[in-house]
Amino acid sequence: MAVIITNASVLNSEGQPERMDVEIKNGIIAGIAEAGSLKAAGQEVIEAEGKLLIPGLIDMHVHLREPGFEHKETIETGSRSAAKGGFTTIACMPNTKPVTDSPEVVSLVLGKAREAGLVKVLPYAAITKNELGEELTDFAALKEAGAIGFTDDGVGVQSAQMMKDAMKRAAALNMPVIAHCEDNTLVEGAPVAEGAFAEKYGLKGIPNESEAIHVGRDILLAEATGVHYHVCHVSTEQSIRLIRLGKQIGVKVTAEVCPHHLLLSEEDIPGPDTNWKMNPPLRSRRDVEACIEALLDGTIDMIVTDHAPHSAEEKAKGMLLSPFGIVGFETAFPLLYTAFVATGQWELPLLVKRMTEDPARVFGLNAGVLKAGAPADLTLIDLDTEREVNPDDFATKGRNTPFAGWKLKGWPVATWVDGRQVWSAGDMESKKDEAGLSAD
Ligand SMILES: NC(=O)N[C@@H](CC(=O)O)C(=O)O
Ligand SMILES: [Zn+2]
Ligand SMILES: [Zn+2]
């Protein structure tokens, strides 16, 4: 049977919102037409009441923690959190226990995701065994098992030779290399960025070059090997400069940025609160401005959350000893909508594009567009109701966010994956049109 989402606000090809009906059939968007025109007897009709209907959000950088760290998150709780945040496709990082460095772990992740049955989960596999930077994994076998790219996220690949070999192998398989850029010799266990906060609390600071040195090195290696090279969680002006140059000279380099690096600087850290500790760290206001500019001009291709849940116990270990990372799924869209779109700084279609069409294009996914024939991965968003971020309401197991108490608009209220509603805010109950017989 077909489902009709009626009276939705859909962005047209000029980026203007239009009242439309969207018909979903067999998991596919079967048709889009003027509001009221598709409703027919016997169909399930979902009244969107003018709320914004967009392609399901895509997040190419997330940590689901399973296998091995189920106390932080499971593939099921992470998938539910993603669905609640409006995401329909997520790509998960291999820094699990065991590390996703064998076909068996790739299969396990895919199996658990299927069991959860919520969002589409695309696994990355590790570049090196156990992410130790010593020995390459079996790229061909990992690809065969379903991995979509290679990354040692959580740590930088320290050896240039190792990275070059990885890129050669990945290029031969037409697979991307996704890099956490961090030179360990420049970091030395520092928990926050260089700057006023580190000085005030007598902490070592992480310098910007620790990220940018890897970005520069890897762009040269990508040029030499021809691989698609994707830079994780860009956070510095210097990295952006290098990515811009790489793109100009035709290197296949793409990049992502996280909401927190667009919204917060190290000056905003209120005190030694580990909800503000993440890797890369919050940098200077100047870096934040550079990230925003790069996202707008396309130097940075997409937004990702780097959803990184940790338990309360782990995060209670203080600024030096607690793990890096914050949760991201359930606040990403409302944060960016409220801070940038509702204030008139960004156009709504730009924000949507950087979270849907652009990641799909970069990674070659059949997703990210709302058009007839596309998979019915959809997200309905209430742009008007203001609500405070309350970590106790999160579907993720993680409570580690610096955004608690922020008043936001732009909350997702329903999410569909392949036409199946996988999450709804509760007041979005679908209604059957009882006027007639089934018209499938
Ligand atoms: N981003 C983080 O602060 N932490 C990530 C690792 C990573 O993304 O590098 C994690 O796995 O917790
Ligand atoms: Zn990382
Ligand atoms: Zn990460």
TrEMBL record:
<dbReference type="InterPro" id="IPR004722">
    <property type="entry name" value="DHOase"/>
</dbReference>
<feature type="binding site">
    <location>
        <position position="153"/>
    </location>
    <ligand>
        <name>Zn(2+) 1</name>
    </ligand>
</feature>
<protein>
    <recommendedName>
        <fullName>Dihydroorotase</fullName>
        <ecNumber>3.5.2.3</ecNumber>
    </recommendedName>
</protein>
<comment type="function">
    <text>Catalyzes the reversible cyclization of carbamoyl aspartate to dihydroorotate.</text>
</comment>
<feature type="binding site">
    <location>
        <position position="310"/>
    </location>
    <ligand>
        <name>substrate</name>
    </ligand>
</feature>
<keyword id="KW-0862">Zinc</keyword>
<dbReference type="GO" id="GO:0004038">
    <property type="term" value="F:allantoinase activity"/>
</dbReference>
<feature type="domain" description="Dihydroorotase catalytic">
    <location>
        <begin position="50"/>
        <end position="238"/>
    </location>
</feature>
<comment type="similarity">
    <text>Belongs to the metallo-dependent hydrolases superfamily. DHOase family. Class I DHOase subfamily.</text>
</comment>
<dbReference type="GO" id="GO:0004151">
    <property type="term" value="F:dihydroorotase activity"/>
</dbReference>
<keyword id="KW-0665">Pyrimidine biosynthesis</keyword>
<feature type="binding site">
    <location>
        <position position="153"/>
    </location>
    <ligand>
        <name>Zn(2+) 2</name>
    </ligand>
</feature>
<dbReference type="InterPro" id="IPR032466">
    <property type="entry name" value="Metal_Hydrolase"/>
</dbReference>
<feature type="binding site">
    <location>
        <position position="63"/>
    </location>
    <ligand>
        <name>Zn(2+) 1</name>
    </ligand>
</feature>
<feature type="binding site">
    <location>
        <position position="279"/>
    </location>
    <ligand>
        <name>substrate</name>
    </ligand>
</feature>
<dbReference type="GO" id="GO:0044205">
    <property type="term" value="P:'de novo' UMP biosynthetic process"/>
</dbReference>
<keyword id="KW-0378">Hydrolase</keyword>
<dbReference type="InterPro" id="IPR002195">
    <property type="entry name" value="Dihydroorotase_CS"/>
</dbReference>
<dbReference type="GO" id="GO:0006145">
    <property type="term" value="P:purine nucleobase catabolic process"/>
</dbReference>
<feature type="binding site">
    <location>
        <position position="233"/>
    </location>
    <ligand>
        <name>Zn(2+) 2</name>
    </ligand>
</feature>
<dbReference type="GO" id="GO:0005737">
    <property type="term" value="C:cytoplasm"/>
</dbReference>
<dbReference type="Pfam" id="PF12890">
    <property type="entry name" value="DHOase"/>
</dbReference>
<feature type="binding site">
    <location>
        <position position="95"/>
    </location>
    <ligand>
        <name>substrate</name>
    </ligand>
</feature>
<feature type="binding site">
    <location>
        <position position="306"/>
    </location>
    <ligand>
        <name>Zn(2+) 1</name>
    </ligand>
</feature>
<dbReference type="InterPro" id="IPR050138">
    <property type="entry name" value="DHOase/Allantoinase_Hydrolase"/>
</dbReference>
<keyword id="KW-0479">Metal-binding</keyword>
<feature type="binding site">
    <location>
        <position position="180"/>
    </location>
    <ligand>
        <name>Zn(2+) 2</name>
    </ligand>
</feature>
<comment type="pathway">
    <text>Pyrimidine metabolism; UMP biosynthesis via de novo pathway; (S)-dihydroorotate from bicarbonate: step 3/3.</text>
</comment>
<dbReference type="InterPro" id="IPR011059">
    <property type="entry name" value="Metal-dep_hydrolase_composite"/>
</dbReference>
<feature type="active site">
    <location>
        <position position="306"/>
    </location>
</feature>
<dbReference type="InterPro" id="IPR024403">
    <property type="entry name" value="DHOase_cat"/>
</dbReference>
<feature type="binding site">
    <location>
        <begin position="324"/>
        <end position="325"/>
    </location>
    <ligand>
        <name>substrate</name>
    </ligand>
</feature>
<feature type="binding site">
    <location>
        <begin position="63"/>
        <end position="65"/>
    </location>
    <ligand>
        <name>substrate</name>
    </ligand>
</feature>
<dbReference type="GO" id="GO:0008270">
    <property type="term" value="F:zinc ion binding"/>
</dbReference>
<feature type="binding site">
    <location>
        <position position="61"/>
    </location>
    <ligand>
        <name>Zn(2+) 1</name>
    </ligand>
</feature>
